[in-house]
Amino acid sequence: MYILGIESSCDECSAAIVENGKKIVSHIIATQVEDHKLFYGIVPEIASRLHSEWIYNVVQETLSASKLTLNDIDAIAVTTEPGLMGSLIVGLSFAKGLAYSLQKPLIPVNHIKAHLYAPQLEFDVAYPYIGLLLSGGHSLICIVRDSDDIEVLGTTIDDACGEAFDKVAKFYDLGYPGGVYIDKMAQDGDAKAYHFPKPKLKHRGEFDVSYSGLKTAVIHQSHQFWNQKSEQNMANLAASFQRTAIDILLDKALLACERYKINRLVAGGGVAANSYLRQRLNAQENIQVYYPSFDLCTDNAAMIAGLGYHNFLAEKLGTWQTNASSRSQGLHKAKPQNRP
Ligand code: KG4
Ligand code: ZN
Fold it and tell me: What is the mean pLDDT of residues 136-160?
């Protein structure tokens, strides 16, 4: 079964054809990074307008690269939540139009669940696993029992992990997207040069995290770290910040593996491209770790088409009334566990 996936929830305009939820037949990701660089962040109106301009060509090129025709496509899967409303609506309306004209099923897909499904396109990961989603808009620790059965253990109570990377990079004028530049700069730095605070969330769930304190420390206390803003100091700062930002989420995800006795961990989302995170994941001895290749970490339509296949099998189909949602409706939070 061939599913055409469409992703336009943020600043990547992407389409993919995936066979039986597994094999990527063709995949195009058109990124808007250059168009938002000047603003050090995504400008929602620019994002929606560009999706509107690009989506036809992105889908057309994906089809051409696949050597299939629209008649070979069995269903259209599309991201409906969460994301930027204007951007989501472009992809959804395009997908609806296509599904209507072909008289093929429309499959709504949750973007967060799709990130946690992404490694299944490259590996056979047995369920259940602990999911660790780190992106520009989301930070989440969860139990993934099946592709569409996800129990959230904890989230960020303020900034997302990638957002913290982007804001720190913006403050120091390092480049956009911040995570990419901080990661590069950190290669020459000493990750133990500065000791940044980790959040202690006494009145929150055990697996919740926070990034605003770390961000504030790195940005507003910079004068305490050095007398001179040298290149080496900056590299040390990048490495120390990166280590703390990743440790905050990863330590909790590893704790979740221990607490729920699940020895499989899957990382996904843009920050899953981070080299320090990958180093730490690779060093795990008692846990099987999986993270997608770079193209499947960032927002992409292959993960949408992949998960769309399972939604199709489960008969979770859309209608002509299906709408987009800026927030994630399809995830539920776990009841707090009694700590041992
Ligand atoms: O998943 P994604 O492409 O978009 C969202 O759904 O948000 O994630 C984008 C985020 C940005 O915040 C970017 O700075 C971060 O991923 N990122 C990284 C790296 N590459 C991208 N963060 C840390 N290290 C990286 N190598
Ligand atoms: Zn994403």
Answer: 94
Q: Which two tokens stand for residue 7?
A: 């992703």
Tokens standing for residue 225: 């770290």
- What is the distance between the alpha carbons of residues 23 and 146, in angstroms, rounded to a whole number? 19
Identity of the residue numbered 233: N
On whether the CB atoms of residues 130 and 253 are closer than 8 A, the answer is yes
Ligand 1 lined by 273 (C-beta under 6 Å): yes
Identify the burial level of 31 via C-beta atoms within 10 angstroms of its C-beta, where 0-12 means exposed, 13-18 middle and 19 or more buried.
middle
Arithmetic mean of pLDDT over the chain: 94
Q: Is 12 exposed, middle or buried (0-12, 13-18, 19+ CB in 10 A)?
A: buried
For residues 268 and 300, what is the distance between their CA atoms, to the nearest angstrom?
Answer: 12
pLDDT band at 340 (very low <50, low <70, confident <90, very high): very low
Ligand 1 pocket residue status of 83, Cβ below 6 Å: no
Question: What is the atom index within ligand 1 of the atom nearest the CA of 160?
Answer: 12
- As given in the structure block, the two tokens for residue 68 are 């299939």
Q: Is the CB of 270 under 6 A from ligand 1?
A: yes
Percent of the chain with pLDDT over 70: 95
Question: Who contacts 315 (Cβ-Cβ below 8 Å, separation ≥6)?
Answer: none
| Burial label, 182 (beta-carbon count in 10 A; 0-12, 13-18, 19+) | buried
What are the tens digits of pLDDT across the range 46-80?
Answer: 999 999 999 999 999 999 999 999 999 999 999 99
| pLDDT category of residue 338 using cuts at 50, 70 and 90 | low
Could you identify the atom of ligand 1 that is nearest to the CA of residue 9? Answer: 6
